[in-house]
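Course exercise 7: structure representation. Students receive a sequence record and must write out the corresponding structure in token form. The form below is the worked example handed out in class, using Glyoxalase (125 residues). Read each field label carefully; the graders check that inputs and outputs are placed in the correct fields and that the protein name is recorded exactly as given.

STUDENT ID: A-19
EXERCISE PROTEIN: Glyoxalase
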Amino acid sequence: MTTLNHLNLATSNVPELTRFFQTGFGFNLMAQRGNGNFNLLAGEDGFILALLNDKSVTPQTYPSTFHVGFLVVSTDKVREHHRLITEAGFDAPAPGPLQQGGRNAYGFYCHAPGGVMVEVSAQAD
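STUDENT ANSWER:
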């Protein structure tokens, strides 16, 4: 079996993107190097997210369709993640119906700090 182990994301704001993934999705900070310019985060399932400082990154520098997607088990979980993100002071539009490759979903997309687009969705009830 082949397992996706980690993802490196370039960002212009490592500290705020770290806080976004910690508060919104329960990632834990495993290591920090270079005065906060390189952070390693671990998800509940052991997935590693490496955040690397790149001051040139903006929402326009990533390809328009690039995003990090979280699939959750229910529409209630979508709303919970939305609540966690917005209560932490991050901007996220209200969840709603999404059309994803022929299946109906419920969720939202938001720009996380430092130029990264994030999707949170569940199969529609």
